[in-house]
Every structure is written in structure tokens, then in C-alpha cells.
């Protein structure tokens, strides 16, 4: 079964009979009136990890549920990942980075009124100082749309002003009056990361403040859909233990530099199973001027509903290529519809597989929805992208003028050929 990406909110795919995994944003929602601790938005995945959906089921645990230490955990290091570390790592690298970094890492609490919960709730996550003027980086889902949050620094609460947030890239900046002596964490880059590199995560999993875990870079350039419907690409995958509450915290390299911002986990148990994801710090640095000004961050938008092509889907639909993006429908009035891109003429349950197939963007081959998103993400709003398209077996070029991602997405509908 192919992964189906919806321009209005995620992936469509039936659950595997072997059970489901979940992608969970790793912030913690603590309901004030005793309703327990749970994750924030959850996105369902199939058991093979390939398909992610936009389902948002309620998930609760209790505040007392701490993750037990692994028998492999060293007693001489604050590592909590359960991974077997080399003697060089265990002898002090993680401890040194932890001690040096901890004063720059904070707890962020956002209070909001939750519909249907019976009262206000708290979203608890992590953040870290990026300069000595009091600016703190975190996830947008940690601040949860609030204008002010509580920032706990060394056990003392401070009022934090949310100066900028980008919900699509899940990034936010919070400002506080900085206590004396606050130092920012050193900023590195994710561009030089390699699978196998040591990484360290520090945060507040399950409200266990100042917790550290360590592991390696497990993969690069991972992608996943967000609740907005846009696919986040270029993510860093790690097996450093991430749990609810780690959201917004730093992922550090062996030099103690921030290389990522922890944001999500994939898990069948709403807890760490060794598959976590971080937003590359480079993305924050690119957007930082806009976030610090409080300016709106815009992202380019095509306005399609699409399927990743695979050899199995190509065989099933008798398609001429086995790689690319099959357009199932376009959003009325969206950029793709205006440019004349065509969707499938069948139904969602009985497609004809006759929609346009996007095979390249500006001459760069497209492997799927994630690569299509990555290809257009660097193009400015209003620019024209040249899509190489197969339409009924004939190659054509469709020129699409990119529009800004809308605040509210209308439903996509099938276009007649």
C-alpha cells in the first residue's frame, strides 16, 4: 500500500494488522485538574514505519511513570539511553557536556484552555538559550499558540514572551529578562553529521527535569508530515532516548554544540524505543532573523493531494514509471490547480491512477512527496517552478507559481482530465 499524503493534513493509510506505531511530538500535556500526563499531537504510522497518518488520538499516562534505567546503563555517567557506550565516552565526555550545557537549558510551561478537558492544561517542554540577551529556542508545539509562557531557570520561574513562532517548521523563540551570567549554548551545524556520530539530548522527559540521554545519529534527511499537512524534511534521526517533555531541547554533538532541536519520536508505546527526530539547527538559524522580529514565516505551497510512487503501486496502476509523485487531486484555487495540474478521475477508494505524475522539479528528479517538498522549500513565494509531468504517458512541463502556505487549507477535490 502506498503512502498517501494529504495537502490538508497528513498521510492516509490503513493500520497494519501487526499493530501501529506512533509519531508523537515529544512535548508533555499536563492537565491541571488531575487528568494525567500525555503527549501532544500524535501522528499514526504503519508498523513498517513508512506510512504516517494525521490521526490525533488521546494518549494519557501518569506523572509518576518514569522510564526505568536499562541494565546496560553506566552508574558513573548521567547517560540514560540504555546504549552501551565506549570507555572513552563513558569516562567523562557525556558528563562534561552535560555539566557545561545544563545552566543554559530551561523548562517551558504553556497554559492553555483545552476544549473538552474540563479546564486549563499545561504543555511542558524544554528550551535553551541561543544568546545572552535572553532569547530561548524551543518548538512551536511547546508554546502551543500562547503569547506568554513560564520559563523555569535553575528552579526559578520567569515570564517568557513568545516573540516568534513557525508552526509549520515547529520552531519558536521565547524571550526572558536574562538572569546574570546566562550563557548561550554553542551553535554547531547538522550539515557535517554522519550516521554513527555521538549525540546527547538534555531535557525534561515526563517532568524529570535536567535529564540527559546519549546515543548516535541513526539516520539523516528523514521526513514526516505535520498536522499542517506539510512534510518536514531533512530531520536528524537518533537513538538517544527522547520522551514526552524533551521537545524543544538541544541535541548536542561530541563538542557540546547544538546540532538539532528534539521534536518527535516514533513509538508503539508512546515512549522511547530508540527512534527520535530532531530539527537541524541550521533551519532555526536560517529563520532566526524573522523569528526574533516576530515576522510571519512563510512557506511555499503547491496545493496537491498526492501519492508516493513505488514499484508496487506502478504495477498495480499500470503506470509508466515507478518513481515520482502521483497527483490525486488539487486544491481548488491553489497554485497547482491554477497551473492546470490534473488529479485522478477516480475516487479515493477506487482510483483510476490517471492523475499527473510529477517526475522532476526544475530538472531535479523527484523520488516522492518528501523530496518534492524539500525541492520547493528553498524557492521564494511567487517564484515559478517547472514541473516535469507525465500525463497519460506523454511528458509535458507545467509551470506553477508558488503561493504562501495558507492558514486554513481547503479540501482538495479530484479534477476532471
From TrEMBL:
InterPro entries named in the record: Chloro_Bact_Ser_Proteases (IPR051201), PDZ (IPR001478), PDZ_sf (IPR036034), Peptidase_S1_PA (IPR009003), Peptidase_S1C (IPR001940)
UniProt keyword annotation of NAD present: no
A Pfam match: PDZ_2
Gene3D superfamilies: 2.30.42.10, 2.40.10.120
Regions that span the bilayer: 22-43
Listed name of the protein: Trypsin-like peptidase domain-containing protein
Taxonomic placement: Bacteria, Bacillati, Bacillota, Bacilli, Bacillales
Keywords recorded for this protein, A-Z: Hydrolase, Membrane, Protease, Serine protease, Transmembrane, Transmembrane helix
GO MF annotation terms: serine-type endopeptidase activity
Polar residues compositional bias, start-end: 75-84
Superkingdom of source: Bacteria
Biased composition (Low complexity): 61-74
GO terms (BP aspect): proteolysis
Domain PDZ: 288-393
Amino acid at each position: 500500500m502506498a503512502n498517501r499524503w494529504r495537502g490538508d493534513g497528513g498521510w492516509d493509510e490503513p493500520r497494519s494488522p501487526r499493530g501501529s506505531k506512533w509519531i508523537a511530538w515529544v512535548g508533555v500535556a499536563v492537565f491541571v485538574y488531575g487528568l494525567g500526563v500525555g503527549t501532544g499531537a500524535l501522528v499514526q504510522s504503519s508498523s513498517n514505519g513508512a506510512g504516517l497518518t494525521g490521526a490525533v488520538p488521546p494518549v494519557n499516562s501518569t506523572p509518576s511513570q518514569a522510564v526505568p534505567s536499562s541494565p546496560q546503563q553506566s552508574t558513573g555517567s548521567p547517560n540514560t539511553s540504555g546504549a552501551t557506550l565506549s570507555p572513552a565516552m563513558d569516562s567523562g565526555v557525556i558528563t562534561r557536556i552535560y555539566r557545561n550545557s545544563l545552566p543554559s537549558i530551561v523548562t517551558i510551561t504553556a497554559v492553555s484552555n483545552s476544549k473538552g478537558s474540563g479546564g486549563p492544561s499545561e504543555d511542558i517542554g524544554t528550551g535553551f538559550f541561543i544568546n545572552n540577551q535572553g532569547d530561548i529556542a524551543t518548538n512551536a508545539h511547546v508554546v502551543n499558540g500562547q503569547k506568554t509562557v513560564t520559563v523555569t531557570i535553575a528552579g526559578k520561574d520567569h515570564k517568557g514572551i513568545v516573540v516568534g513562532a513557525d508552526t509549520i517548521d515547529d520552531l519558536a523563540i521565547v524571550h526572558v529578562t536574562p538572569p546574570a551570567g546566562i550563557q548561550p549554548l554553542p551553535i554547531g551545524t547538522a550539515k557535517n553529521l554522519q550516521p554513527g556520530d555521538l549525540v546527547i539530548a538534555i531535557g525534561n522527559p515526563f517532568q524529570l527535569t535536567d535529564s540527559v540521554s546519549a546515543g548516535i545519529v541513526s539516520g539523516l534527511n528523514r521526513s514526516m508530515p505535520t498536522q499542517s499537512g506539510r512534510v518536514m524534511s531533512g530531520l536528524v534521526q537518533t537513538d538517544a532516548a527522547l520522551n514526552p517533555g524533551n521537545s524543544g531541547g538541544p541535541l548536542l554533538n561530541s563538542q557540546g554544540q547544538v546540532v538539532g532541536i528534539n521534536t518527535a519520536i516514533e513509538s508503539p508505546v508512546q515512549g522511547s524505543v530508540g527512534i527520535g527526530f530532531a530539527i537541524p539547527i541550521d533551519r532555526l538559524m536560517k529563520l532566526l532573523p524573522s523569528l526574533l522580529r516576530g515576522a510571519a514565516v512563510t512557506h511555499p505551497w503547491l496545493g496537491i493531494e498526492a501519492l508516493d510512487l513505488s514499484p508496487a503501486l506502478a504495477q498495480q496502476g499500470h503506470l509508466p514509471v515507478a518513481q515520482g509523485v502521483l497527483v490525486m487531486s488539487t486544491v481548488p484555487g491553489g497554485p497547482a490547480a491554477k497551473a492546470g495540474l490534473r488529479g485522478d478521475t477516480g475516487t479515493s477508494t477506487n482510483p483510476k491512477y490517471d492523475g499527473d505524475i510529477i517526475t522532476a522539479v526544475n530538472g531535479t528528479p523527484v523520488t516522492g512527496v518528501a523530496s518534492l517538498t524539500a525541492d520547493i522549500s528553498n524557492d521564494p513565494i511567487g517564484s515559478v517552478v517547472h514541473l516535469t509531468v507525465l500525463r497519460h504517458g506523454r511528458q509535458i512541463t507545467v509551470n506553477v507559481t508558488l503561493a504562501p502556505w495558507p492558514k486554513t487549507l481547503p479540501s482538495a477535490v479530484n479534477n476532471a482530465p
